[in-house]
Amino acid sequence: MIPKGIENADAIIEACKLTLAGLDSADAEWREVLQSVIEIMEDMKTKFFLKTNLAIPVTNACRKDAAELQSLVEKHDLSYFPEVLARFRGNMEKILKQANMDGVIIT
Amino acid sequence: MRTVLVTGGVGSLGRCVAQRLCKEGYTVRVFDLPQMDFTGLEEDSGFEILRGDITQSAAVQQAVEGVSAVIHLAALLPPASERRHELTFAVNVEGTLRMAKALKKANPDAPLVFSSSVSTYGDTTGGKLPITVDHSQQALDIYAESKIAAERSLRESCPNAVILRISGISVPSVQSPPEVWPFMADQRIEFVHRDDVVTALCNAAMMREAKGSVFNIAGGATWRTRGKNYVKDYYDLLGVPIEEARFQERPGWCDWYDTKESQRILRYENTSYQAYLDQLRAEIEKMMQV
């Protein structure tokens, strides 16, 4: 069974790729954000955090945002795209913050 | 008001010690490397900040001036200690001795509490239980080697030293686990809650009876478990299957320890293993609310 955090990460990556494919090359700034999310999520898939339950709430939120971006592109309606993209970025920042599980066991 | 020097006072344990002492009404001199982040320990909140390096005599002399006790935590820890043998000995051994000599000169009665480690016992898996302070010491790494050497120097030169051989410290916060846990799956382990270590360190500096003693510091009966069980409890709370965990194939330095004497004098085993798990669970629930 694939842990839910990783499953969400895969869905986010897939939605970002499909969104990218549907965007015009003129939307350079949006494309850059989506490309960077793909890279971050690919890297994060190797991290312990993604395997924990802690990852589920934040990755759920990002998965929802990514799906919404994809749907907007498919409908050729980009009026809300900047708003959803900004929310997506905010949630991605939360993932990065939570993933920084850098406590130590001191010996 | 009495002043206590905490070396390595900006580290994760040092901060907790400094804050506890400050809360108990002591003036706390926090000594650490200049490049460390002293945020949260500003002087107006009851701390004296002193930036310096224990490899430098002048800085150490300044640090011990007017203090009534020293809690000496400054050290190079693994993994850094394993990469830099020379520096590890300069800090962990010579730095400790320099501190002891300077304190003896400044205040011959003041205790020096030295944070050593149960890792100095090495592989104890075949021995008699529980591990007592007179067990032989056999370093498995450079860090333990340095702590054994520092202990030896202190016993020869500093009758006021209180040596605490501290077990693995469990912090009730969510942490990325090590790639390989530093013990075997079925190995005996007995860690200790961070707050209890702080209590032990502070009490060691205050209790006259502690002077000149060597103590094991571990969690007590409720913390005695096996490596796999400890990791499973943690992974269960995070919802991660235990199969994800990797353990050492050879014994690490962990075991069960005799803490009767340390508990009698220092009265620090106040947090049960279950209480630690409850704190961790609460922390996880807080983090889940995003």
Count of distinct strands of chain A: 0
Structural category of chain A: mainly alpha
Strand tally of chain B is 11
Q: Which parts of chain A are unreliable, with pLDDT below 50 for 5 consecutive residues or more?
A: 103-107
Which strand order spans the largest sheet of chain B, edge to edge or round the barrel? Answer: 3-2-1-4-5-6-10
Put simply, the count of helices of chain A is: 4
Rg of chain B is 19 Å
> Which sequence of SSEs, written as H and E, runs from N to C of chain B?
EHEEHEHHEHEEEEHEEHHH
The amount of helix of chain A comes to over 70%
Strand content of chain B: 15-25%
What does this structure look like?
The complex is a heterodimer of chains A (107) and B (290). With 107 residues, chain A is an all-alpha fold. Chain A has one domain. In chain A, 70% of the residues lie in helices and 0% in strands. Chain A contains four helices and no strands. With 290 residues, chain B is an alpha/beta fold. Chain B has nine helices and eleven strands. In chain B, helix 2 packs across helix 4. Chain B is globular. The chains are: A mainly alpha (107), B alpha/beta (290). Chains A and B meet through helix 3 of A and strand 7 and helix 9 of B.
Topology (elements, then pairings):
The complex is a heterodimer of chains A (107) and B (290).
Chain A: H1 4-22, H2 28-44, H3 55-74, H4 81-99
Helix pairs in contact in A: 1-2, 1-3, 2-4, 3-4
Chain B: E1 3-7, H1 12-23, E2 27-32, E3 47-51, H2 57-64, E4 69-72, H3 80-83, H4 85-106, E5 112-117, H5 142-157, E6 161-166, E7 169-170, E8 188-190, E9 192-193, H6 194-206, E10 214-217, E11 224-226, H7 227-238, H8 260-266, H9 273-288
Parallel strand pairs in B: 1-2, 1-4, 2-3, 4-5, 5-6, 6-10, 7-9
Antiparallel strand pairs in B: 8-11
Give a quick set of tags describing it:
heterodimer; A: 107 residues; mainly alpha; disordered C terminus; B: alpha/beta; seven-stranded parallel beta sheet
